[in-house]
C-alpha cells in the first residue's frame, strides 16, 4: 500500500497556523492601547472550554489499553497536559473574578446563550476525536498545539502588561510559563523526529487534510466569538452583577424588613 510522510500534514498545519495568526483577535490581545483587563475579558466564558478540554484528554484522546506506539505517545501527552485547568482556576482568582455565586447562577452563566461558543467548540472537538484513529488524534493534537502557540503568545502580551499593574504571575495565559511548567515528551527531538517520519496510508491522508482544516475552522470561529464577547463585556461582567444580587438576597434573608 502506498504511503505518504507525515511531513506533508505538518507542513499543512504550519501553513494554516500562519493564516490563523492574522485573525483580528490576536491583534486585539497585543494592543497596548487597550487595558490588559479588557483584553482578557473573555476569561470567565473560557471556563467551559478549558475544563472540557481536560476531559477531552482523559476520556477521548487517551486509551490506556493499547500497544500502538502512536497512541502511547498521545497518552503521554494527555498526562502532561492534564493539569492546565488548575493554572486556569488560579488565574481567574488573580484576575479578581472569583465571585461567590449560587450554584444555579453559575450553571446559568456557563450554559447561557452568550457563552455558547465555548461549549460548542468543545463539543465539536469531541465529535471529531471520538473513536478516531490514533494518527487522526495525533494530527488533531499537533494542530491544536499550533493554534495554542498563537493564542498564548497573544495572551502572554496581555498578562505581561497586567503583571506590571498587579505584580502577579498568570501561568495559564502566559505562554512562557505554560511551556516551562509542562516540558512535553512530545516536544523532545526524538519524538518530533518519530512523528515527522511517520508513514501514512494514502486513504487516511485525505482524511487528515480534512481534520487539519476542520480544527482550524473550529478555532477560527471560536476566536471570532471570543473577540466579539471581549469587545462587548468587562472582565467581571456579568459575574459581578450576579454576585451582588446573591449578596442582596442573602442580606434580605438574614435581616428581613418588618412592615
Walk me through the topology.
Layout: E1 3-5, H1 7-20, H2 24-29, H3 36-39, H4 47-61, H5 69-80, H6 84-94, H7 103-110, H8 116-129, H9 134-166, H10 175-181, H11 189-196, E2 199-201, H12 202-232, H13 239-254
Antiparallel strand pairs: 1-2
Helix pairs in contact: 1-9, 1-12, 4-5, 4-8, 8-12, 9-12
Nutshell version of this structure?
This protein is mainly alpha-helical. Helices cover 69% and strands 2% of the residues.
Any descriptors?
259 residues, mainly alpha, two-stranded antiparallel ribbon, 13 helices, 69% helix
Describe it.
This protein is an all-alpha fold. The protein has 13 helices and two strands. Helix 1 runs parallel beside helix 9 (134-166) and helix 4 (47-61) packs antiparallel against helix 5 (69-80). The longest helix is centred in the middle third of the chain and has 33 residues, at 134-166. It is globular. The model has no long low-confidence stretch (mean pLDDT 85).
Instruction: State the end-to-end CA separation.
Output: 86 Å
Structural class: mainly alpha
Biggest sheet strand line-up: 1-2
Residues in β-strands, percent: under 5%
State the helix count.
13
User: Averaging pLDDT over every residue, what do you get?
Assistant: 85
Q: What are the low-pLDDT stretches, counting only 5+ consecutive residues below 50?
A: none
State the order of secondary-structure elements, H for helix, E for strand. Answer: EHHHHHHHHHHHEHH
**Helix content range of the residues, please?**
55-70%
How many strands?
2
- What's the main sheet like? 2 strands, antiparallel
Amino acid at each position: 500500500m502506498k504511503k505518504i510522510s507525515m511531513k506533508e500534514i505538518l507542513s499543512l498545519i504550519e501553513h494554516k497556523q500562519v493564516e490563523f495568526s492574522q485573525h483580528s483577535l490576536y491583534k486585539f490581545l497585543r494592543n497596548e492601547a487597550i487595558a490588559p483587563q479588557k483584553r482578557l475579558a473573555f476569561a470567565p466564558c473560557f471556563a467551559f472550554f478549558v475544563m472540557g478540554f481536560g476531559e477531552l484528554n482523559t476520556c477521548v484522546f487517551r486509551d490506556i489499553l493499547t500497544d500502538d506506539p502512536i497512541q502511547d505517545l498521545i497518552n503521554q501527552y494527555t498526562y502532561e497536559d492534564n493539569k492546565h485547568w488548575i493554572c486556569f482556576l488560579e488565574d481567574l482568582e488573580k484576575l479578581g473574578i472569583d465571585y461567590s455565586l449560587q450554584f444555579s447562577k453559575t450553571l446559568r452563566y456557563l450554559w447561557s446563550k452568550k457563552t455558547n461558543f465555548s461549549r460548542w467548540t468543545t463539543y465539536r472537538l469531541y465529535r471529531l476525536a471520538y473513536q478516531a484513529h490514533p494518527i487522526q488524534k495525533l494530527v488533531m493534537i499537533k494542530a491544536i498545539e499550533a493554534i495554542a502557540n498563537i493564542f498564548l503568545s497573544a495572551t502572554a502580551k496581555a498578562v505581561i502588561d497586567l503583571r506590571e499593574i498587579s505584580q502577579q504571575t498568570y501561568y495559564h495565559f502566559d505562554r512562557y510559563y505554560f511551556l516551562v511548567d509542562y516540558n512535553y515528551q512530545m516536544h523532545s527531538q526524538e519524538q518530533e523526529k518519530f512523528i515527522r517520519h511517520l508513514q501514512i496510508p494514502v486513504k487516511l491522508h485525505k482524511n487528515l487534510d480534512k481534520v487539519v482544516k476542520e480544527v482550524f475552522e473550529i478555532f477560527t470561529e471560536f476566536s471570532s466569538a471570543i473577540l466579539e464577547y471581549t469587545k462587548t463585556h468587562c472582565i467581571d461582567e456579568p459575574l459581578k452583577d450576579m454576585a451582588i444580587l446573591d449578596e442582596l438576597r442573602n442580606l434580605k434573608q438574614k435581616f428581613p424588613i418588618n412592615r
